[in-house]
Design brief:
930 residues, alpha/beta, TIM Barrel, Rossmann fold, Aminopeptidase, 4 domains, 13-stranded mixed β-sheet, 18% strand, disordered C terminus, glycosidase, Glyco_hydro_3_N_sf, GNAT_dom, Glycoside hydrolase family 3 N-terminal domain-containing protein, Acyl_CoA_acyltransferase
Length: 930
């Protein structure tokens, strides 16, 4: 059957079919196998594995040779060159000199930093792109809905769907900024697999589609909304009341109905490798290829054997010839693949990769990024008796014992390369490589030899190091334990290597029962370190000191040693639900929520705010100087409705919530939820939130919900000063329905001492533009022209604030930037002092003598250099305040993705940061009607 359609003449049937395959090969240079695939079958995508890659330089040459081969073979467009580079223990490209090692996905999530996540993803992509690689098979978007005994382990971000979504989105953005295409995996989820048969059998998902939709599918849905380029569908079986399929990637119900139609994914869909043992045994490669393509896959993946790869190609051609596959489906898939290629490839890029020169330039920055990430990821889960740092409990002359399991070295290590070269090959598992890649295999104690050396080097004391096996505690271990004054026990995936669990518990018990030289019982310090899955001892309180590193790369182990010896302060947090202590299950209590009455409730609200300010929580800093009047905007352009939970007998307020609806933009804000510290966890906050949502959803014309409000400037979002409290609040709002993955970091910034401030050298000259003139205006005479400026810039929500500033001549003014040629306004900012009327809505400024504020920049999008214009306006504001002899200056709202860097270059520092979250009112409308 011939293909028809609108593709150019070069796209004959052979070339079109070749675009529908991604294939791997063995060898570190161009082999006859890959030549045949590219020249004879016109395969358009190549998967590189660790076995193909020796170094960055060799990888660059190999990719160049593959692209040259494709060009010579008449390929109209370059090859997609893909690989797995998840960091942690899953890296295909390793080069100690040029490729930086970063933590695993869960390790990065443990830092709690979305910015760091994005920076690491961008750095990873930049390194791959420098070698000519244009497609990364990531990020992993699986939610560990059953965290125990799952093969993914730390390759997953965690067990919280919202957190996986949030960090997954940052990975996608970072990869794309670094110049490579993205591929979410492993749809529909590898986060809760059951293994019913022999090891070669396909694992099974037993959850219903409803359960998957509420948890495991959330990150995939978010990633699709954020522009994910491609999706890998797994080869797992599915068995529930609604769906019963042998392999998800071969199922029309999963690929076409669920992924394409219901979730509206129109990117490239990639099948799991069809060479996995169970699939090839049960169905056969050619039949599996036809089934995968009919199900809706665009790219069929086969990894190794040329005979199998030819079988797959011939199977697809046969399916086309006998009418099982329609020609329009081939063109549909080819077009999706070409669209992705057009976005990330070109012949110019293929033949001029940045190469080693680029990697050399990036190396210092990426090395620092790697160190920062590892230092921030290591997590002290428990330390009941304060054994960390060890200097508290062991003297330099005393002996420290290190006990480690026998595990296979991580692929991203020199030791792995050494063992690989000695063995001459790397054994392949019959199971899906995506499922099996994290499995630990016993091979020797060399993996942790460097850890022992680091412990000795940093401590300058005696360290004994030996390994343990499934044989348990041996006489050698007991003798060393008797001799040592403290013990470190390392586990690596103890959930799937149960002997490690038993061994660590046994050693911990022996340490608790230890006896001192004088015969008196004296517990011996014991530290258990999980260097892979953190779930080894999360729920095991008998392990009193428990640390997690998330992988056992040299960088991770170095950070561990520095924490053990007190050179680093551990700040990592367990990702997901395990980041908090489990709370007793409580039924939700519904509180009576009333409208706020200023006359009745003001005094009680001031008392409530004062109580919160006295708390040793992040809210104390956020609510400093805040009183009732700070929340009451009294702006005709804003509909405000506030609510209270109160004791009508004592007149006390137990809780308070504010809402603001900016009519001109259709945005409703929840500006604050404040609960009496003595009455938290009683569902008061839930009741206030529900009432606020019901009030906002009824607003005519509402198009967006937002958590946090710029003005009044109290809570710009969820406060981030305290990482633990931020994580708790973030999860609380996520459970209430907010999509916390779609968030923006915003901040308040300050120059604390204007007397010491001077503009950065050369900045004034840099910002000079002969076509831009600045002036400072006061008073109602300028009201009309400024309102027109706000309207043109689509910033009508600032209308009330600007009007207030112009009517308050004493403490306020507006700095404008105008085009010299026609006097049109290009930008403006509002400036005010502590005594102005506006200051009462900015508690950090209100009644603070010597302090001033810059607020509400409005920049025309038609001006090409918005950043310089913004900096120029702010610079003039600072100079104005310095000239007036003021002490410090505050800027009350700065976005991390645009304005924050510009402000830091002017000398501002962050005083408080928040996570601003937006949501679609549609979900609230549905909630309010159920």
């Amino acid at each position: 059957m011939a293909l028809s359609g609108d593709l150019p003449p070069l796209w004959d049937e052979s070339r079109q079919l070749g675009q529908l395959f991604m294939m791997g090969f063995d060898g570190t240079s161009v082999t006859q196998q890959v030549k045949t695939l590219i020249e004879k079958y016109h395969v358009g995508s190549i998967l590189l594995k660790a076995q193909n890659l020796k170094s960055a330089e060799q990888a660059t040459q190999l990719v160049f040779d593959l692209q040259s081969l494709a060009r010579q073979a008449g390929h109209p467009v370059p090859l997609l060159i893909a690989l797995d580079q998840e960091n942690g223990g899953v890296n295909s490209l390793y080069d100690e000199a040029y490729i930086r090692q970063f933590p695993s996905a869960m390790g990065v999530a443990a830092t709690g930093s979305k910015k760091l996540t994005r920076d690491i993803a961008r750095a990873t992509a930049q390194e791959l792109s420098s070698c000519g690689i244009n497609w990364i098979l990531g990020p992993v978007l699986d939610v560990l809905t059953n965290a125990r005994n799952q093969p993914l382990g730390v390759r997953s971000i965690g067990d919280d769907p919202q957190e996986v979504s949030s960090f997954g989105v940052e990975c996608i953005k970072g990869y794309q900024e670094g110049g490579v295409a993205t591929c979410g995996k492993h749809f529909p989820s590898y986060g809760n697999l059951e293994f019913f048969g022999v090891p070669d059998d396909v694992p099974t998902i037993t959850e219903s589609l409803e359960n998957l939709s509420q948890s495991a599918l959330v990150p995939f849905r978010t990633a699709i909304a954020q522009g994910l380029d491609s999706m890998m569908v797994g080869g797992v079986a599915m068995a529930s009341s609604q769906v019963n399929v042998m392999h998800a990637c071969l199922s029309e119900q999963i690929v076409r109905d669920l992924l394409r139609h219901e979730m509206r994914f129109d990117g490239v869909v990639v099948s799991e490798c069809l060479e996995m043992e169970a699939l090839s045994r049960n169905i056969g490669i050619s039949g599996g290829t036809v089934m995968a393509f009919k199900a809706g896959c665009d790219l069929i993946l086969t990894c190794r054997s040329l005979l199998v790869q030819e079988d797959a190609i011939n199977g697809l051609r046969a399916g086309l010839d006998n009418g099982m596959i329609e020609g329009f489906r081939v063109q549909e898939s080819v077009q999706r693949i070409l669209n992705m290629k057009a976005k990330y490839t070109s012949w110019e890029k293929a033949f001029t990769p940045p190469g080693i020169e680029s990697l050399t330039r990036l190396q210092p920055l990426h090395t620092n990024l790697s160190t920062t990430a590892y230092n921030k990821s290591v997590t002290v889960v428990r330390d009941k008796k304060h054994y960390v740092p060890l200097s508290r409990v062991i003297k330099p002359e005393e002996e420290l014992l290190l006990l480690t399991p026998l595990v296979k070295p991580l692929p991203a290590s020199a030791l792995f390369r050494q063992l690989q070269n000695e063995a001459g090959t790397v054994p392949n598992s019959g199971r899906s490589p995506s499922v099996d890649a994290n499995t630990s295999i016993m091979s020797g104690e060399q993996v942790f030899r460097e850890l022992g050396r680091l412990l000795t080097r940093y401590r300058n004391g005696k360290v004994s190091h030996t390994s343990y096996t499934a044989n348990g505690v041996r006489p050698l271990h007991e003798n060393l334990l008797d001799r040592a004054q403290a013990v470190i026990v390392v586990t690596a995936d103890a959930g799937r290597n149960m002997y490690q669990t038993a061994y660590a518990k046994h050693i911990s018990m022996l340490c608790k029962l230890a006896v001192g030289p004088d015969g008196i019982p004296k517990e011996k310090p014991c530290v258990v370190v999980a260097v892979s899955s953190p779930f080894d001892f999360i729920a095991e309180p008998s392990i009193g000191t428990y640390i997690c590193t998330y992988d056992f790369t040299e960088s991770a182990l170095r950070a561990l040693v520095q924490i053990l010896y007190g050179e680093l302060n551990p700040i990592g947090l367990l990702p997901g639900s395990h980041g908090q202590k489990p709370q007793a299950t409580q039924s939700r209590q519904q509180w009576l929520v009333e409208n706020f009455n200023e006359d009745r409730d003001s005094a009680a609200l001031d008392v409530l705010l004062n109580q919160c300010q006295k708390e040793s929580l992040v809210h104390a800093a956020t609510l400093k100087n805040t009183t009732t009047s700070n929340f009451l905007l009294r702006d005709s352009n804003v509909e405000e409705a506030h609510f209270v939970v109160r004791n009508s007998t004592t007149k006390e307020l137990f809780g308070f919530c504010t809402t603001y609806y900016f009519k001109t933009r259709g945005i409703g804000h929840i500006g604050a939820i404040v609960v009496d510290p003595a009455r938290r966890k009683l569902s008061i906050g839930h009741s206030l939130h529900d009432r606020a949502v019901r009030a906002l959803v009824q607003k005519k014309g509402i198009i967006k919900f937002q958590l946090g409000v710029r003005f009044p400037s109290i809570y710009l979002g969820i406060p981030k000063l305290d990482p633990l409290e931020f994580k708790r609040l973030r999860q609380w709002f996520a459970k209430l329905g907010w999509n916390t993955s779609l968030s923006t970091t915003v901040a308040t910034v300050t120059i604390r001492d204007l007397t010491l401030w001077s503009p950065p050298e050369g900045l004034g000259q840099t910002l000079t533009n002969p076509d831009v003139k600045y002036d400072l205006v006061y008073g109602d005479d300028y009201n009309d022209i400024m309102m027109e400026h706000l309207k043109r810039c689509n910033r009508t929500e600032a209308k009330g604030l600007y009007q207030l500033a112009m009517s308050n001549k004493e403490g306020c003014g507006i700095i404008r930037a105008k085009r010299a040629s026609d006097q049109s306004i290009l930008g403006s900012i509002l400036i005010c002092r502590a005594e102005s009327t506006i200051a009462k809505y900015i508690p950090a400024l209100y009644k603070q003598p010597g302090m001033a504020c810059i607020s509400s920049p409005v920049i025309s999008t038609k001006f090409s250099d918005q950043k310089s214009l913004f900096q120029g306006l702010v610079l003039l504001g600072i100079r104005q305040f310095k000239k007036q002899g003021l002490r410090s200056v505050l800027l009350d709202y700065a976005r991390e993705d645009f304005t924050l860097d510009s402000l830091k270059s002017l000398g501002f520092t962050v005083t408080n940061s928040f996570e601003e979250i937006s949501s679609d009112p549609m979900q609230w409308t549905m909630m309010s009607t159920t």
